[in-house]
Amino acid sequence: MSRGYWRVVQDEVNEALDASEQRGMCLCVKSDRTKRLLDRRAKAGDVVAPFPHVYARASYWRSLSPATQALHVARAVAALHPAWVFCGTSAAIVHGLQVSEPDPSVVHALDTRGGKGRRSKYVVRHRMRPGDDEKTEVVSGVKVTSLERTIADCLRTLSLPAGLAVADSALRDYGLSREDLANFVQAQPHARGSR
Fold it and tell me: 49's torsion region: left (phi>0), alpha (psi -120 to 50) or beta?
C-alpha cells in the first residue's frame, strides 16, 4: 500500500479521535484495518488502548481524571455493545456519582444471558435478578441500572469508604436522604451484602 494511502487513513483516524473527544468518549473501532493502525500508534505511545477496540490520544487521556476516563470508556463500550446494561461502579460513574479510585479499563455489566456472573480482565459481569430488565435507563447514551439499583449495588458491594463516597455524592447531588439509601438496599433483601 502506498504512503499516500496510509496518510489518508491516519487523517481519518485523527478526525475520528477529534470527534470522539468532542463527544466525551474514547474512539471505538470495529474495523480491523483501523485497529491495526491504532495498535501501532499505541505501541509508539501516541495513543492508549484502555479497553479492547477502544482508543484515546495519550495526551488527552492523561489530562482526564480517572472518573472521567472511566466515563469515556463506558460511553465507547456502550457504542460497541449497545445491548449491555452497565451496573455497579460503571453505572455510578455514568449517573455522575463519585466513585473513589475507579478503574477505567474495567466495566461492570449485567449478565443478560442468565449466567451467575463472571469476571474477565476487562468486564465484570453481574448476575441479573428478576425484574432487572425493567429497572434500566439510558443516561448520556449509556444503558445503566436505575439510580436506586446503582446506589444499592455500590453500597452492598464496595468497601465502606468507597461505598460512603457513592452515598455522600447521592445525598449531595440528588437530594436523597439516608432513609432513601437504606430503602434502596432493603429493596434487595436477598442480594449479597444487603444485611
Answer: beta
* Alpha-carbon separation of residue 86 from 41, 60, 77, 172, 192 (angstroms): 29, 24, 10, 23, 18
Under-50 pLDDT residues of the chain = 1, 194
Contact 85, 126 (CB under 8 A): no
Which helix (H) or strand (E) segment holds residue 143: the answer is strand 142-145
Whole-number pLDDT of residue 152: 87
pLDDT score of 194: 47
| Of 143, 165, 142, nearest in space to 154 by CA | 165
β-pair partners for 155: none
Please state the pTM of the whole predicted model. Answer: 0.86
pLDDT score of 131: 60
